[in-house]
Design goal:
This protein is an alpha+beta fold. The chain is built from three helices and four strands, in the order βαβαββα. The protein has a single domain, classed as Glutaredoxin (3-Layer(aba) Sandwich). The longest helix has 12 residues.
Length: about 80
């Protein structure tokens, strides 16, 4: 499973999502969209973070823990 967090500099909500994934033992890649704007063309997010699972934008902002767990388990 490929997990990516689309982030911006100083994004406190991004850190919350990172911590959620760490608690669940999920590995992820952190993508700073200000350094890699092509991600905004592919995944037009207006609020950071964006959570991409297997090349599909699944969440923007902070998901509820239960929703995150369900989406992760259904994507395996």
């Amino acid at each position: 499973m490929k997990i990516q967090i689309l982030t911006t500099p100083g994004c406190s909500n991004c850190h919350v999502l990172e911590n959620m994934l760490k608690k669940l033992g999920v590995k992820y890649d952190l993508i700073d969209v200000t350094e890699e704007p092509e991600y905004l063309e592919k995944y037009p997010i207006f609020t950071a973070p964006g959570l991409v699972i297997n090349d599909k934008l699944e969440f923007t902002g902070i998901p509820k823990t239960r929703e995150l767990e369900e989406r992760l388990s259904s994507s395996r």
